[in-house]
Specification:
Elements: E1 5-11, E2 14-19, E3 24-28, H1 36-50, E4 57-60, H2 62-67, H3 72-85, E5 96-102, E6 105-108, E7 117-123, E8 130-134, E9 139-142, E10 147-152, E11 157-161, E12 180-188, H4 192-198, H5 206-209, E13 216-219, E14 222-226, E15 233-235
Antiparallel strand pairs: 1-2, 1-13, 3-10, 4-5, 5-12, 6-11, 7-10, 7-12, 8-9, 8-11, 13-14, 14-15
Length: 237
Amino acid sequence: MSHRLTSYFWNSTALRSRSVSDIVLSGTVDVPQPPARLMADWERDIAETLFLEPGDVEPLPLARARMRWPDHKRCVQAMSEWTEALGLKDVLASSDIALMACRGARYHHDGEQYGSAAFCNLFVSEDKGLDVHFPGTGHRIPLARGTVLMFDTAQPHAVIRRGASGFDAEDFAAGRDCSQLFLTWELPIDNADVARALRIEFDIDPSTASRLNDEQVWLDGARASVCPESGRWRAAG
């Protein structure tokens, strides 16, 4: 990467610095389609409870879904086998899991809330002509049922229309079937196997970490944010 990114993340009661990985691990696992009635309930929740607008990403109740999703365990097992093949051993079993829904996703990074984690996602919706795009690395991954991803939370990403050059809310206008549902795990970034898989370097700027009060991502020595339409880095504030 041509620019130096640094994540400052909480480690117990202190902030710690680390590199931001440009590695995006992806693949496909064999998981069955969720039951039609459950999918219909999810779509109703998206429309009537979450009120998802273009670009929104929000959680759905996983505990309720588990009761009506006989293949949920099969999904978790498929993800566990994929991560184990990457050398992650049993880290998935001890990590937090959530069910998420999105109607596309604007370009963003999650390093100011989840700097201490890597995301591991399993998509359970059908192919709707959408991609996950990582503008800083060049990765562009088609989303379909069984698509799996593991990436650094501080790396900018978005869900955009296939073929688009950026996020456009019109691509996710009302009436279009463009919602995506996925299971996501928060893997501890300081787990030795996770750090090795993403090639994370720790304590690269301890002096700055010692004087900050919250999680941040810096680019070339200054706090930075991401343009939600293009994914380009810009000065924070």
